[in-house]
Specification:
Distance between the termini: 66 Å
Number of strands: 2
Number of helices: 9
Structural class: mainly alpha
Strand content: under 5%
Radius of gyration: 26 Å
Order of helices and strands: HHHHHHHHEEH
Amino acid sequence: MWEIIQAAGWPIWPLILTSIIGVAIILERFWSLRKSQIIPEGLMIEINAMIKQNDIDASKLEILKNSSPLGDLLSVAISKRKNSIEIIKSALDERVGIIIHNLERYLGVLVTIATVAPLLGLFGTIIGMVELFSSFTSSGHDVAVFARGISIALYNTAGGIVVAVPAMIAYRFFRSKIDNYLNEMEHEAIQIVEILKGS
């Protein structure tokens, strides 16, 4: 590995840095976007029981709010239960915006890495080409410098692609995951509103 880094020259270092950041974000998002963290199993049953027993107070709503994004959303519906449907929906829409922002944390950085990495690879390619052409002199050409220029160009081009492709795949995967979570959470919120208004 060290031989490859040496062959790729100094332009590979920004790519290595972006790849480290990308891997860190992917691991963090995998951990944070687990379904058990976003939509805990059994939460709806617990809330239904609270509503039926009329066992709702400020402290329980605070615990519910901090338990998960779904709990946060449902706590808004429950806290606004005495208001009209329109007011509840408006409060839910506002809360969904905050939840989306939290779920999408670092995804902007990830898509930026996917966009910038090929450009960093292209920059390395240009550096390699400059070194390659500098090997030609009036007295002939230096084979070692020529080979190094090709090496820098190819390794950096490949490095840019290797960093960008997984970052873009991970971004699309997390976006799809978040969209599915939001659909499920909105469905659960509608159910709670119907139960509250039905009761």
